[in-house]
Design brief:
Two copies of one chain form a homodimer. By secondary structure, chain A is an alpha+beta fold. Chain A contains six helices and three strands, in the order H-H-E-H-H-E-E-H-H. Chain A is globular and about 50 Å long. The relative contact order of chain A is 0.12. Chain A binds a DNA duplex through helix 4.
Chain lengths: 115, 115
DNA sequence: CGGTATCCTCGGAGATACTG
DNA sequence: CAGTATCTCCGAGGATACCG
């Protein structure tokens, strides 16, 4: 998943959203701004380093915004931009499609067996 | 991107669509059934092995269907299922969102921040 | 022609430690 | 607390050859 061949918006957006974390992070930011450490609590299996990297690419894509508050200990908050908020329903639609699809088309056999 | 923690439909659908090829393959099948070799012409940089693997996971997800016609040389065709067709507009919406976002919002916010 | 098997490498990401 | 630096390791996927 490295260099792009075409300048295709779909390929580009998938480049940003691909992988396990991006959509999860967006999901957990739906409700409003959160601190770094709270996002880690939401995603207990992600590693420190990965989270900063993932958050950075989301920021560079204009999906989230990073705010650094001075003081000690440091405090950094992330929240969805307006573009990020507009993205949420599109991702949800994919989730809905998936539930629908897996329930009906693929698992037909299972349903068959039960009846 | 291995084991899933949650039974979250979004995480699951992203598992299938993540990466460079799935959405591209879906895109190239929008117009109707295609042979294996024609899909390779559409995606000249994908390798033989990868394509069979990607096509297989798409099939297992119920997005495409595989038809094998006997004869020699062998002939295999792939086409979108009805679920696959319902997925297309959702992916397109992501592409549209991306174009819109990269053109307008991201730069806007940068300009805002400067003032 | 389409699919599988094999080998190999290269970098993503797990894990830990350190800095501001 | 958040971010960076290192080191390591494993496996996705590139490349090629062979099979049905």
């Amino acid at each position: 998943m490295k260099s792009l061949v075409l300048r295709c918006p779909i390929e580009e957006v998938m480049q940003v959203l691909s992988g396990r974390w991006p959509t999860l992070l967006i999901y957990y930011l739906k409700g409003g701004a959160k601190r770094f450490r709270d996002l880690r609590k939401d995603n207990p299996t992600i590693y420190h380093k990965m989270m900063t990297l993932e958050l950075r690419t989301l920021k560079e894509a204009g999906i989230i915004e990073r705010s650094e508050f001075g003081g000690y200990p440091l405090r950094v908050e992330y929240e969805l931009t307006s573009a990020g908020h507009r993205l949420v329903p599109l991702i949800d639609a994919l989730g809905d499609w998936w539930e629908e699809t897996q329930g009906v088309d693929v698992n037909m056999e299972r349903i068959d067996r039960k009846s």
